[in-house]
Structure formats: structure tokens, C-alpha cells
User: Which sequence fits this backbone?
């Protein structure tokens, strides 16, 4: 039934992940840059406090000065003084479909990014290296969207109800059956929003007296769901099996904190692909640990569903494992399917429980029909049920693009994090001054990138994150790579000591030792 | 031709300085303040070096010479 397990039993690929450290002078210079920025931040704050400069952020009225402060000034120090200076690189409005190329609205600022105004022109055909459009399903081709148009005309756009009241359409039932079929599990349930799927369903599954073991770099939706559930949360180092095993052993030996009773439930929260690092979870080892210590596993495949695996079925297929090994499979339709929403899949008992007990099912509006139809047509395309091999071609094209892009970036000498097979490619920039310079110059060359800085990443490791798509042609990738080459030389970003590739013994390798 | 590549190299170095110390992000008056401060510090350092370094080096040289000279004399006196 399934052919081509990309990392399974016989032809096991080595699990190669790179997290190269930059030379020491880079860290020193980064701190120097932040130091200068902080000093000037204090200077500007002083000037604002003493009225030498106009205050542009929210302040209280004169009459409220003696009350408890409403706006905590110091907490936004970083936002006010560093983020504002480079704010033009984020929240850029786009005015076309976010396919492999898109149009941007041009905007300028007169007062150093405190306010923007649109000039009225659009920047056309900017190469899109930031959208999570892994399989290229964000398209406006009329033939492709035929069924979506029909459903839109049949159902309209609003549901005006929650799942439990009158919001379950036949489209939802069809979609859920299709998702369950796609993943190879018994049943699935879909929700209208991906973030809400995590944050509203974890509280339904765990409660007080349970233990959550969550990875260091988990997404905010998982952390929010874990905190809302009021279970005890313990954090293990990123993708580090020894750390996880130690926590599991301690949990089982010592039990709950004061009473030393056994934990009601132990659940491990991991993600398929971590979006800031580009690393893939070590699923076989985690599953063997979970079986040994009798814990549950919650796998968030937001970025990996559709993007890894021989036929696009996510990390479970990538490692050649059976979906029965994972207790709760969660994913989103935002990334690879060009729609919006999330799903939770697993055994029928689990999904039936969630249908009655999840906050999302009871209170949140269900997914709207045209979006559900878009997911149905994308999934049918992926599974080959529409009679073409287009889906498989897209998955293969994504794999090819990913490997090509990563190989060329390694050869050029940039520091890239993550697994060789993940389509999320973070390129390390390190210094705060370079964040703004990089994004602006890439836009001048007509390439749109996403840069990430301090609060979302550790302070010394700011990065530019590229998302490779199946819709990118080889020419587009070459354009981007040439621009990166030039920019890397100009901004001096090529810190890697292992450039000119082809030295596998220099990378850290872990062989997967699975018995099968 | 060499002057042009030299000028380009110097411009590139200046850009690197701007990026590393975040002066790329500063408004013009902040840049003025920052550069004035840096150049003042640098000039003061060079002036202090110009005044004091030759004196220190010659003093150190004399000290070591004295040390070696003394040893020589002691050796001579013992041999006698």
C-alpha cells in the first residue's frame, strides 16, 4: 500500500542536523551592538521623560499621573528603542495571493518608522521566500479552484454557529473522513483555527495532577494550551532524548511534588518541524521512550504535514513508523494546504471525547465551507484521488528544492540551522544591525524575506527564515541564491567554517537504531 | 584602478563598522553624537600614546639593560 518510505528500515538515511556555533568574535560583536543600542535607548528614554523629545507611544493623561501606572514603561524598552527602528521590515501589506511571487504595497516613513504612509505604488513580482506555502496550493488558477467556487456559491461564507449547535455541515464530515484516511488513523476532527486547536484542546486532554513534558522550543500555542490546563509543566532540552528520559524517570520515581502520588497522566508535547530552527523531532527515540515509561505523545505537525515524508504524510511517514504509535496527531491546514484551520486525529475514542469536551467544539465557530473545500481538493490532489500525479509531483519538487537550496547555502558558507530535509531554512545573522540591513536590501533586489530577532529567538541568534516552496522554479531559487551570495559578501555573513561542503565526517551524525 | 578598489574596500569597512555598532539604525543626530564620542576617545588615546609610550619604552629598556649590566659586573667580580 505504501511505497517509498524515505527514512525507514532498509535504506535508513543518517539524521543530519546542523547547529553550528559561530566564531567567538561574532558573539562579542553582537553584544557590543546590543550594548550601544541599549545606551542610546536609555538616552532617548531620558529625553522623552524630560520632554526634550515628543512621545509617540501611549501615555496616561495628566489627571492619571498619580494612579497605579497603566503602561509599564520599562517592559517595552526593547520595542520602543530597537524594534521601532527596523519596524518597516514587518507587517508589510501584500496585495496579491502569496504564491511563489507576490505584490507588495510600497510604503514610506517620514518619522523613522513611527508612522507609515502608502505611496500608492505596488512593487510587483517580489519573490516570496517567507510564506508557508510549502506545496504551492496558494494559487488563483481558475481550473484548480473550480470546486471551491461551486461550494462558495452553494454554501456562502458564514456558518453562524458552533460545531455542537448547528455548525456541522456535510462538508465537515467529508473533510474529517478524508483527513483520517490521509493520515491512516481511525478518526479526525477539524477546527477553524490552527492556534486555537492547540490552545483549546490541550486543556480538554490534561488537567490538574497531570504532567506535561514539553520541548524547550515549542510554539506559543502549545505553551498557552499547557498553561491553561493547569497541569505541571516540565521542560526538556530541545530534541534531547537524555534530558527527556531523565525527566520521565524522575517523574515516575518521585511522583507529584508534595504528595508523591503517581501522576495521573504524563504527556509529551513535541512538534514535527520546529519553525524557528528547522529541526525535525527524533520521533523513533521518543516513541520508544514513551512505550517504555507508559506516557502519551502529542505531536504537533503544523509545519511537517504535507512537507516531509515520501507522499507528504508528515514525520510519521518520514521515519517509516505507524500512526498508531502517536497518541494525538495534530496539524494545521494553514501551511501546506493553502487554507486555514487545524485538525486533531487519533483513535475514535479520543476524537469522540474531544467532540464533546473541547472548548473549540462547544464555543468556536466551525470552519467555513469554501475553506473546507479547498482543503478537500488539496488533500485529494496529494493522495492522487483526483486522477493525476500532481500531488506527488509537488511533494517531490519540494524535496528537490529543499535539498538544492540547503546544499547551495552550505557551499556558500552561511550558517544554516536544521535538518537537511526540512523546508524551513533559518540563516543566522547574529548582529542586530544586520537584521534591518538584510531585509531592506533583499527587498531592493525584489525578494521578500522574513527576519526574526530577539524576543522570538535567543538574543545572540537573530536569523532570516526562508520557507522553500514546491512552486518555486529553479530560476527563482537561483536568483535568490545569487542575491544571497552578493549580500553575504557585502554584509559579511559567511561565518561557517565548513564551507565548500562534501565533508560528511565534520557534521554531527546520529544513526537511527530501530529494530523492525 | 587600485585607488578605486581601495576606496571600495574602505567603504565596505565603514559599512561593517556601521552594522556592527548599530549606528546603521541611528538617526543622523545620534550618529553625529556617537561618531564624535568615538573620534574624541580615539584622539585622546592616540595623544596619550604619543606622549607616554616612548618614555615608557626607554625606561623599560634602561631597566633591562641595568639588570643585564649588573649581572655582568657580578660575574666579573666573582671570577676575579
Assistant:
Amino acid at each position: 500500500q505504501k511505497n517509498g518510505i524515505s527514512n525507514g528500515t532498509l535504506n535508513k538515511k543518517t539524521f543530519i542536523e546542523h547547529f553550528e556555533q559561530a566564531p567567538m568574535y561574532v558573539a562579542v560583536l553582537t553584544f557590543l551592538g546590543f550594548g550601544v543600542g541599549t545606551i542610546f535607548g536609555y538616552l532617548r528614554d531620558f529625553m522623552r521623560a524630560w520632554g526634550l523629545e515628543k512621545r509617540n507611544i501611549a501615555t496616561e493623561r495628566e489627571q492619571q499621573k498619580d494612579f497605579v501606572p497603566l503602561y509599564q514603561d520599562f517592559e517595552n524598552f526593547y520595542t520602543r528603542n530597537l524594534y521601532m527602528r527596523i519596524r518597516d521590515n514587518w507587517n508589510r501589506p501584500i496585495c496579491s495571493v502569496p504564491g511563489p511571487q507576490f505584490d507588495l504595497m510600497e510604503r514610506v516613513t517620514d518619522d523613522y518608522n513611527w508612522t507609515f504612509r502608502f505611496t500608492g505604488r505596488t512593487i510587483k513580482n517580489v519573490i516570496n521566500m517567507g510564506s508557508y506555502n510549502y506545496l504551492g496550493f496558494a494559487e488563483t488558477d481558475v481550473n484548480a479552484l473550480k470546486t471551491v467556487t461551486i461550494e462558495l456559491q452553494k454554501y456562502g461564507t458564514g456558518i453562524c454557529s458552533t460545531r455542537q449547535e448547528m455548525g456541522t455541515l456535510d462538508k465537515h464530515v467529508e473533510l474529517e473522513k478524508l483527513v483520517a484516511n490521509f493520515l491512516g488513523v481511525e478518526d479526525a476532527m477539524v477546527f477553524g483555527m490552527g492556534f486555537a486547536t492547540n490552545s483549546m484542546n490541550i486543556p480538554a486532554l490534561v488537567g490538574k495532577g497531570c504532567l506535561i513534558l514539553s520541548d524547550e522550543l515549542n510554539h506559543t500555542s502549545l505553551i498557552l494550551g499547557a498553561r491553561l490546563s493547569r497541569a505541571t509543566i516540565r521542560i526538556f532540552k530541545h530534541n534531547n532524548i537524555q534530558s527527556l528520559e531523565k525527566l520521565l524517570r524522575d517523574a515516575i520515581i518521585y511522583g507529584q511534588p508534595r504528595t508523591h502520588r503517581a501522576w495521573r497522566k504524563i504527556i509529551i508535547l513535541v512538534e514535527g518541524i520546529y519553525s524557528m530552527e528547522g529541526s525535525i523531532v527524533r520521533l523513533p527515540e521518543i516513541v520508544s521512550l514513551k512505550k517504555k515509561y507508559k506516557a502519551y505523545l502529542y505531536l504537533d505537525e503544523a509545519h511537517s504535514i504535507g512537507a516531509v515524508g515520501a507522499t507528504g504524510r508528515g514525520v510519521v511517514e518520514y521515519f517509516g513508523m505507524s500512526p498508531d504509535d502517536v497518541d494525538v496527531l495534530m496539524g494545521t491546514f494553514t501551511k501546506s494546504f493553502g487554507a486555514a484551520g487545524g485538525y486533531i486525529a487519533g483513535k475514535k475514542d479520543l476524537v469522540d471525547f474531544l467532540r464533546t469536551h473541547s472548548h473549540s467544539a462547544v464555543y468556536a465557530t466551525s470552519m467555513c465551507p469554501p475553506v473546507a473545500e479547498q482543503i478537500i481538493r488539496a488533500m485529494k490532489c496529494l493522495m492522487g484521488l483526483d486522477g493525476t500525479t500532481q500531488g506527488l509531483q509537488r511533494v517531490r519538487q519540494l524535496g528537490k528544492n529543499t535539498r538544492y537550496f540547503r546544499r547551495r547555502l552550505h557551499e556558500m558558507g552561511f550558517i544554516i540551522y536544521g535538518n537537511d530535509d526540512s523546508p524551513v531554512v533559518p540563516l543566522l545573522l547574529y548582529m542586530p544591525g544586520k537584521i534591518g540591513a538584510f531585509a531592506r536590501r533583499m527587498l531592493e533586489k525584489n525578494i521578500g524575506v522574513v527576519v526574526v530577532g530577539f524576543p522570538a529567538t535567543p538574543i545572540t541568534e537573530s536569523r532570516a527564515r526562508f520557507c522553500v516552496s514546491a512552486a518555486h522554479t529553479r530560476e527563482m531559487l537561483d536568483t535568490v541564491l545569487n542575491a544571497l551570495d552578493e549580500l553575504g559578501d557585502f554584509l559579511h555573513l559567511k561565518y561557517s567554517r565548513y564551507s565548500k561542503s562534501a565533508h560528511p565526517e565534520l557534521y554531527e551524525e546520529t544513526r537511527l537504531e530501530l529494530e523492525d | 584602478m587600485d585607488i578605486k578598489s581601495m576606496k571600495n574596500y574602505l567603504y565596505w569597512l565603514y559599512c561593517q563598522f556601521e552594522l556592527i555598532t548599530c549606528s546603521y539604525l541611528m538617526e543622523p543626530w545620534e550618529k553625529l553624537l556617537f561618531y564624535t564620542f568615538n573620534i574624541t576617545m580615539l584622539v585622546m588615546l592616540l595623544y596619550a600614546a604619543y606622549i607616554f609610550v616612548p618614555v615608557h619604552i626607554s625606561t623599560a629598556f634602561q631597566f633591562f639593560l641595568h639588570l643585564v649590566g649588573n649581572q655582568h659586573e657580578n660575574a666579573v667580580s666573582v671570577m676575579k
